[in-house]
Amino acid sequence: MIEYADSSIHIKDTILWLDAIKKRALSFISHAHSEQMNTFHDRIIATKTTIEFYKKFVLKEVPLNALQMSFFRKFSIGDLTLTLYPSGHVPGAAQLFVKVKENKILYSGHINNRVNPICDEIYYPTAETLVLDSTYGSEEYIFPKRDVEESLFLKYVKKELENGYHIVILTNPFGKAQYLIDLLNRLQKPIYLQNKIYQYTQLFKSEKIIDFSFIKPLTSKLSTPSILLYPFEYFEKIPFNRDEYKKIALSGDAIFKDIFHSKYILDESFIISDHADFNGLIEYVKFVSPSKIYLMPSKTESKLLKQHLKELRFDVEELLKPKPKSLF
Q: Is pLDDT of 86 > 50?
């Protein structure tokens, strides 16, 4: 029922693709900051938040043919019966449950089963077939308690502000940035946002899930120690002398601190992710209780996760790119 082609998931004998990278007649888009957002499909299926992001920041003036679906409501397209469930990853992020004939398939997308106050909490449907994202699917990725890391993070920010440094925080501009704003609001200090992050954050103004009291656009050089949020791609473009600021980031990749610090030239990092860790993935699989699991490809995690799930007696298969046909 499942095939992997052109770096995307396809449900065989249907028009439905899942987070397709190439243009398709119909693709489900699981969340707003996926690379699949750069593709203009004929028609998409997504949540309201994801569609609004797609319209405003990707398509701009290009018309969008979208099926907007709410969580927990069934919707039919031909022989397909579809239901979206929260995945807990970023606002609007969804899992897709597909019933086609007698087959019940669940596509996880990116999941996070730790509480995030700006997201709908993850839901655990049961399904016969599970297509699972394998990010952090290695036992090396077991994260500490989130509230402990949050406390350490806030203490660090407060201390270095008092020491006279700007605090530059590298982050994903959608999802993680808004989570950080909600967390940093506890310090009751101005939070300056690089333009992309500021624009993305405006999507949440009407929903009132974030307190905007301390949010400011980053428009000029700051004279007093301040908190600033920048996208990761700006890690070498910070407009201050290097001795004027501390540069930090929050990620599951901070498990390997030396490598992570070297990549982004960081002063400090904290292990806070919007993905499930290894234990979270195993917990999720146990709740879904599938007869068959297809693991989405990754550099190493899918192989390690496959091995562990097999030890737990699950029927697991890695989705692999089809081999090119020989010309001879």
A: yes
What is the reported pLDDT for 328? 46
- Tokens coding 17: 């693709």
228 HSE (CA, 13 A, CB side) = 28
Domains of the chain: 2-140+275-318 (3.60.15.10), 146-270 (3.40.50.10890)
- 75 DSSP β-pair partners: 82
pTM comes to 0.93
Q: What SS3 state is found at 80?
A: strand
- Residue 175: strand, helix, or coil: coil
Q: How many CA atoms lie within 13 A of 35 on its CB side?
A: 4
Chain centroid, CA 45 distance in Å: 17
Q: β-strand 16-18 against 8-11: which pairing, if any? A: antiparallel
Check pLDDT > 70 for residue 243: yes
Mean pLDDT, residues 182-205: 94
